[in-house]
Design a protein that fits this description.
Shape: globular
Helix content: 55-70%
Number of domains: 2
Structural class: mainly alpha
Largest sheet: none
Oligomer: single chain
Distance between the termini: 21 Å
Number of strands: 0
Radius of gyration: 18 Å
């Protein structure tokens, strides 16, 4: 829903239910996709994909902590990460260590999903992002 508000997905996905204030269409679509995957894929495969995706997200967050601490040292933060860059680097190494234990087929599936996401982003979202259009160069002087 939030990605749709930024223009990374079509606007229809940002609509919320007038009474419940929830993203009804997004919830229905996500539930259907999850149900189909749960019905077609073995549970162990779903768990492995969930693991590699979550660990990779931790890696990206840790990289983000390092980059933002360097590029925006005086920015207000809701929480503090001690010993930057030691703790984030340890997190990155730990996540990659855990990811290395996953089978190669999980890596292949993960890379395919990652590439699909990147293609969608660069073919549609990058050119429609409201945030990127409204605040060019805000993040360390680079355009994403």
């Amino acid at each position: 829903m939030v990605m749709s508000r930024d223009g990374l997905f079509p606007k229809v996905f940002s609509k919320v239910h007038p009474v419940h204030k929830t993203p009804t269409l997004c919830t229905i679509i996500t539930g259907c996709i999850a149900a189909i995957m749960a019905g077609l894929l073995p549970l162990q495969d779903i768990i492995k994909l969930c693991n590699i995706g979550t660990l990779f997200a931790f890696v990206l967050v840790s990289i983000g902590v390092i980059v933002l601490r360097k590029d925006m040292p005086n920015a207000e933060r809701k929480f503090k990460c001690l010993w930057v860059p030691v703790v984030p680097l340890f997190t990155i190494l730990s996540c990659f260590y855990l990811m290395s234990a996953l089978p190669i087929v999980t890596w292949i599936r993960f890379i395919i999903w990652l590439l699909v996401g990147l293609v969608i982003y660069f073919m549609y979202g990058r050119h429609h992002s409201i945030l990127q259009k409204s605040k060019p160069g805000q993040y360390g002087g680079t355009r994403l």
